[in-house]
Amino acid sequence: MVSHNPTIEAISEVGELGVIDFLVKPLTFNNLSRVVTKVQDKIFSREHELYRSAERLIQKREYSQALEVIAESEQRFPGLRWLILKGRAHLGLCDTKQAEDEFCTAKISAHMASVIALGHLVQVYEVTGNVEKSIETLNELTQKSPNNLDRRLKLAELLTLSDRPSEAKAVLDALSKMNLDVESQISIANMLEKAGHGEEAANLRAKSIRQNLNDFVLCNKMAIELRRQGEHEKAESCYQEIVGVHTNQRVIWFNRGINFAAWGHSQRDVYLLEKARDCFRTALKIDPKYTDAVTMLETLQGQMRRIMEKKKQAT
User: Fold this and answer.
1) 91 in Cβ contact with 128 (< 8 Å)
2) Which residues are bridge partners to 23 per DSSP?
3) How far apart are CA 34 and CA 42, in angstroms?
């Protein structure tokens, strides 16, 4: 693998993919020549052939046959790589105790093998439902390889489920300070919400929108995610920010109208439905041929009539 990033975390992340050497840019002829020779020697070796054979058997879920190949190979070519394969095969056979033993042995070895083994140990503890062990292992894993967002989010989720909100918030606060893309910021905001920190979640969403206002598609996606969670008021706060910059984007007005319509329908509130109607009309002013807005406007007017009729009957 060739990369501009020489960190040990980056090297660890790709180890399980079969990477056997790591070149840092800029390349030199001597380094490239050395690695090509090494790779050629490696891929044509009997050890590598056996390793790939065992790996293919695991991918096919033929775990017992894989263990037979590994047992033969270990005796001829001792090495850490067989521990990881054995653990994966035992996990496939639902022998979680043996899988755990193999991964625990591997995790005290070289850094790359350790990171890979810890990742598989998390899988073992998920299968066995051992949340505390999962948290402990994820903590260890994030210390060794701190740049993996999914693992940190998983750790925060488990801490939240274990009623440890302050620890979950500490993990999420550390993540929110990193230079993350919008998708990641949305995930962190959602986790903060689940952990009971609604204000921090709202602040992170607002910050993300302000940072990305020029990209209305991403901002719109964030507001849609809030709407789907039933957080209509927070979604409207997002749209207020967005329309201030993108006043002539029909899709923004349309989705703002969808949010008001869903909000008004859940509350049986005609005022909110009127706000939705105004948004759809604005979308049609921008594009008179916007058929989705026409359809929603017709549906909305029918909803408003039914609500008004029910209110009259009630009085």
Assistant:
1) no
2) 2
3) 12
Instruction: Count how many residues are written for the chain.
Output: 315
Pairing of the two strands 2-3 and 23-24 = parallel
CA distance 166 to 181: 24
Amino acid found at 226: L
Question: Using one digit for the tens of pLDDT, what is the confidence trace for 161-214?
Answer: 888 888 888 888 887 777 777 677 777 877 777 777 777 777 777 777 666 666
Task: Tell me, letter by letter, the H, E, C secondary structure of the chain.
Answer: CEECCCCHHHHHHHHHHCCCCCEECCCCHHHHHHHHHHHHHHHCCHHHHHHHHHHHHHHCCCHHHHHHHHHHHHHHCCCCHHHHHHHHHHHHCCCHHHHHHHHHHHHCCCHHHHHHHHHHHHHHHHHHCCHHHHHHHHHHHHHHCCCCHHHHHHHHHHHHHCCCHHHHHHHHHHHHCCCCCHHHHHHHHHHHHHCCCHHHHHHHHHHHHHHCCCCHHHHHHHHHHHHHCCCHHHHHHHHHHHHCCCCCCHHHHHHHHHHHHHHHHHHCCHHHHHHHHHHHHHHHHHCCCCHHHHHHHHHHHHHHHHHHHHHHHHC
For residue 22, what are the contacts with CB-CB under 8 A and spacing of at least 6? 1, 3, 6, 10, 11, 14
Residue 293's nearest CA partner among 258, 268, 260 is 258
**Residue 213 tokens, joined:** 């206002």
Here the tokens at position 242 are 């967005």
Maximum average pLDDT range among 1-10, 168-177, 219-228, 294-303:
294-303
Q: How far apart are CA 203 and CA 179, in angstroms?
A: 16
Q: What is the pTM of this model?
A: 0.56
Task: Report the candidate in 10, 218, 90, 132 with the shortest Cα–Cα distance to residue 1.
Answer: 10
